[in-house]
Amino acid sequence: MNKKYLDLLAEKYDSEEKVINELINLEAILNLPKGTEHFVSDLHGEFQSFQHVLRNGSGRVREKIVELFFSVLSEEKINELTTLVYYPEDKLQLIKHNFGNNEELHDWYAETIKHLVKLISFASSKYTRSKLRRALPKQFVYIIEELLYKTEDELLNKEPYYNIIVERVISLGQADKLIIGLAYCMQRLVVDHLHVVGDIYDRGPQPDKIMDTLIDYHSVDIQWGNHDVLWIGAFSGSKVCLANILRISARYDNLDIIEDVYGINLRPLLNLAEKYYTDNAAFRPKVQTGKKITDQERLQITKMHQAIAMIQFKLEMPIIKRRPFFNMSERLLLENIDYDKNEIKIQGKTYKLENTCFATVNPDNPERLIEEEQEVIDKLLFSVQHSEKLARHIHFLMKKGNLYLKYNGNLLIHGCIPLDEKGNMEEMVIEDTTYGGRDLLDIFEYHLRYAFAHPEETDDLSTDMVWYLWTGEYSSLFGKRAMTTFERYFIKDKETHKETKNPYYYLRENEDICRKILTDFGLDPDHSHIINGHTPVKEIEGENPIKANGKMIVIDGGFSKAYQSTTGIAGYTLLYNSYGMKLVAHKHFNSKENLLENGTDVLSVKRVVDEEVERKMVRETNVGQELLEEVAALKSLLEYRYMK
Ligand SMILES: O=P(O)(O)OC[C@H]1O[C@](O)(COP(=O)(O)O)[C@@H](O)[C@@H]1O
Ligand SMILES: [Mn+2]
């Protein structure tokens, strides 16, 4: 091993004793059961549902409570404890109202603290003490550790001592704080690591809150979805990506995310919209049920929606022309329009156009932005690139995100691996080099990172490639032949709205194909799975999220409210602990209020995806590999420095 490296290591481990202690510690960790991984995808701005899933650990919290207390606590008490762990602040408020006097409340506090400590002890049994310490509420670490670590003998001798600690906490008015801290600690203990398999942004109202939660989360990685990449693209200088995020925000009545949350001034866009557009049925926003919106607001959004959509359609054209290898010339739709007859020719067929809004289009040069449009998009880009909050969120996406991830033997990817009909890797030539499968994804990621690193470049290959990732035929995130946004606004015939999926989406039912993909990514096909998001699983129509004899798991059950009627459920999540994998189907996310009142959680149906024959240990995981490398280095250090 490199001497310089060992010298550096010796600075940290400057005595034989320290090296030996660390070696023992690492060896011990390697032999603990692997921590629980939690997979979610396609959150689409649905913060409320997302945070509920984090709070209940996809059912893990309740499972642990039931396991520990089923024979000693009533169902009612179990429900109370469960909701207390999910929403401690709110539940405490509700419970405290139920007591008539201080003694009753005091007893309840004492009993609840003991239950929670027991629960923490139970849920942390597979972690080291130092790991648990990091999860404990800082203010109470000492107290909780005193309560946690007691042997049978100590219990006999020290019972009064423990009781006194709890009594003091209560009489000093710290019980609420301690209970809240213990509840959050419990939430954290049931999940060791979170994977977000793409699509945090768009459609739903609070993607920013999801981002803030992820930034604070103890351990997370992200596999970018097509919608996330669109936001990264906008921040990195792609005007067409920017037009898209604004169009989608207008379409779902979410412009307040742009304006109020990210502080981007929409005034210039509104002025343009007021001048050139009027009401238009095809562009009225989809407003969430229960949300109030005035007629005037609706009209304003409808106008802005048209203004930004037209800017988007125009901006697509020069990119398609300067990048022939995108193979998108059929999307030069504004050139196929007969502006006098209001008709369009698509693949030899002529269609009538409805709800048109072409006031700014010059039929002789349809891709040309009028001056005001140019000014608007330039100002918007400036604003987006100078939003401090957006910068924080996009930097986090870049830091924790990748196009795909190999983790503990599984391949995590939002969309697909583009395949041809025979199941071969689809190939794409970029700058004279042919790429397919893993290589294609790697070059996509290279371009995305380059674009992000060069936000001042707006028309270069890398920035255009980010848009390709959103909408290109061989994009691993999109996975469809073409995006028919224009047709869905302006043509009635639904035939034209179809977006043909890449063969991957039917070939992935086939085990051999999945094995081939896993092998291409350097994974052992006997022991690995592909974990996918992106396409809502239509449980309602009997679609099975577990495909290819268990090799393929699709976890997009549709957190997105807008898609729940087509899926029939409210989302899938996946849990992978030392005993195997479980897919959880969430029937629906009860409102917090409902849950607090009635005390029961929404039933989560579980399916066992895979059961480990032997319990999986840290040694066999990604983290384990890193620890083994550390062990090797420390052993070398021991020989080199101390065993002479
Ligand atoms: O339902 P909407 O908002 O019109 O969006 C439809 C568009 O969204 C997409 O499905 C992409 O979004 P998803 O990644 O959520 O599937 C496009 O293929 C399609 O054109
Ligand atoms: Mn998607």
Characterise this structure.
With 644 residues, the protein is of the alpha/beta class. Among the domains are: 1-32 and 631-644, no CATH class; 207-494, no CATH class. The strands form 4 sheets. It has a 7-stranded mixed β-sheet with strand order 7-3-2-1-15-16-17. It has a 5-stranded mixed β-sheet with strand order 8-9-12-14-13. Helix 12 links the parallel strand 2 and strand 3. Helix 4 runs antiparallel to helix 5 and helix 7 runs parallel beside helix 11 (175-189). The longest helix is centred in the middle third of the chain and has 28 residues, at 295-322. It is globular, with a radius of gyration of 28 Å. The model has no long low-confidence stretch (mean pLDDT 93). Residues 199, 225-227, 414, 534 line the site of manganese (II) ion (MN). 1,6-di-O-phosphono-beta-D-fructofuranose (FBP) is lined by residues 199, 226-227, 480, 483, 485, 499, 534.
User: So what's the overall shape?
Assistant: globular
| Strand neighbour order, sheet with most strands | 7-3-2-1-15-16-17
Main structural class = alpha/beta
Portion in strands: 5-15%
Poorly predicted residue ranges: none
Radius of gyration, CA atoms, in whole angstroms: 28 Å
Profile the largest sheet.
7 strands, mixed
How many individual helices? 27
Mean pLDDT: 93
Secondary structure blueprint with pairings:
Layout: H1 3-12, H2 16-30, E1 37-40, H3 47-56, H4 60-69, H5 75-86, H6 88-97, H7 102-123, H8 129-135, H9 141-148, H10 152-171, H11 175-189, E2 193-196, H12 207-216, E3 220-223, H13 226-235, H14 239-251, H15 255-261, H16 267-276, H17 295-322, E4 337-338, E5 343-346, E6 349-352, H18 371-385, H19 388-400, E7 401-402, E8 404-407, E9 410-413, E10 427-430, E11 433-436, H20 437-453, H21 461-471, H22 485-490, H23 504-507, H24 511-520, E12 530-532, E13 546-547, E14 552-554, H25 564-567, E15 572-577, E16 580-586, H26 592-598, E17 604-611, H27 622-642
Parallel strand pairs: 1-2, 2-3, 3-7, 9-12, 12-14
Antiparallel strand pairs: 1-15, 4-5, 5-6, 8-9, 10-11, 13-14, 15-16, 16-17
Helix pairs in contact: 1-27, 2-27, 4-5, 5-6, 7-10, 7-11, 13-14, 13-19, 13-21, 14-17, 16-17, 20-21
Bound molecules: 1,6-di-O-phosphono-beta-D-fructofuranose (FBP) and manganese (II) ion.
The site of 1,6-di-O-phosphono-beta-D-fructofuranose has 8 residues, from helix 13.
